[in-house]
């Protein structure tokens, strides 16, 4: 066979596989350049003037419709001057804000911001006026609290709304005291010092920081305590749960008997 009979090889760039490999190489190189030039997550400021400036931009973009451009409040939302960083961390960190729709009470929901963004908005709101700060890790360290003392304080000040085990309960005018079984220690502390919704504020003069740790220790003990029975019914106990089961079961049997009697006629 002569050289003229041998088909010429197509250049790599003209083959489909070669084109795909070329594109993958370019995308990989582009991703590497972006990763090298993009700021790392650790460089995001979460405190100080730089964080407050970033938080102000987030606030004006997401919160100013209700709370005003400078947090002064409007007919749709209260002023945030003096509420402190703790209030922002609680409201936004539990998904209660931004408010999905007007109602009797803001409910816990999906958190819409990253922790760094929440910290930045909290830093900005803290500049509007003095208010409670976000508690430190030591403030909410329940291992340093006394669960027995915390239970006494909780039953005296909180159980009339939240149930003695923190299971929550109904209030008036469509409001309710939420369950605390899944509330983090930091959010419990922040709720105590900011008084969200219908909850009163418990200053350090009323409940000291150590007593707040005791309450958190009590709630943590309740969370780890396994409830006897099937559902617990708000930690009312297996006897109450059995009574509910008995009443429902008898009711179903009576309903079945009445239905069978009607069919037999």
UniProtKB/TrEMBL annotation:
InterPro entries: bc1_cytC-su, Cyt_c-like_dom, Cyt_c-like_dom_sf, Cytochrome_c_Oxidase_Subunit
A GO CC annotation given for this chain: plasma membrane
Pfam family for this entry, one: Cytochrome_CBB3
Domain of life: Bacteria
SUPFAM superfamilies in alphabetical order: Cytochrome c
PTM entry text: Binds 2 heme c groups covalently per subunit.
Locations listed in the record: Cell membrane
EC class: translocase
Chain positions recorded as heme c 1 binding sites: 63, 66-67
Protein topology in the membrane: Multi-pass membrane protein
Residues covered by the Cytochrome c domain: 50-223
Keyword field: Cell membrane, Electron transport, Heme, Iron, Membrane, Metal-binding, Repeat, Respiratory chain, Translocase, Transmembrane, Transmembrane helix, Transport
Entry's EC annotation: 7.1.1.8
Residues given in the record as heme c 2 binding sites: 158, 161-162
GO terms assigned for molecular function: heme binding; iron ion binding; quinol-cytochrome-c reductase activity
Regions crossing the membrane: 243-261
Catalyses which reaction(s): a quinol + 2 Fe(III)-[cytochrome c](out) = a quinone + 2 Fe(II)-[cytochrome c](out) + 2 H(+)(out)
Subunit structure of this chain's protein: The cytochrome bc1 complex is composed of a cytochrome b (QcrB), the Rieske iron-sulfur protein (QcrA) and a diheme cytochrome c (QcrC) subunit.
Protein name per the record: Cytochrome bc1 complex cytochrome c subunit
Lineage, top ranks: Bacteria, Bacillati, Actinomycetota, Actinomycetes, Motilibacterales
């Amino acid at each position: 066979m002569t050289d003229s009979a041998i088909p010429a090889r197509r250049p790599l760039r003209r083959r489909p596989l070669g084109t795909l490999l070329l594109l993958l190489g370019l995308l990989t190189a582009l991703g590497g350049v972006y990763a090298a030039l993009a700021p790392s997550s650790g460089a995001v400021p979460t405190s100080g003037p730089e964080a407050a400036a970033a938080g102000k931009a987030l606030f004006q973009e997401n919160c100013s419709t209700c709370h005003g451009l400078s947090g002064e409040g409007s007919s749709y939302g209260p002023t945030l001057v003096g509420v402190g960083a703790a209030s922002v961390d609680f409201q936004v960190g539990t998904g209660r804000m931004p408010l999905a729709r007007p109602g009797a009470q803001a409910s816990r929901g999906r958190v819409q911001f990253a922790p760094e963004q929440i910290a930045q908005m909290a830093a900005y709101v803290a500049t509007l006026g003095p208010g409670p700060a976000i508690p430190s890790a030591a403030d909410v360290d329940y291992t340093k609290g006394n669960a027995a003392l915390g239970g006494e304080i909780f039953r005296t000040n909180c159980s009339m709304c939240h149930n003695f085990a923190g299971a929550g309960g109904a209030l008036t005018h469509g409001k309710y005291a939420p369950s605390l079984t899944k509330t983090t220690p930091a959010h419990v502390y922040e709720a105590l010092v900011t008084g969200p919704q219908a909850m009163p504020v418990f200053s350090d003069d009323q409940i000291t920081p150590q007593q707040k740790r005791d309450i958190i220790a009590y709630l943590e003990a309740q969370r780890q305590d396994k409830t006897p029975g099937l559902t617990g019914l708000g930690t009312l106990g297996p006897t109450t749960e059995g009574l509910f089961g008995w009443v429902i079961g008898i009711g179903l049997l009576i309903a079945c008997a009445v239905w069978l009697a009607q069919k037999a006629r």
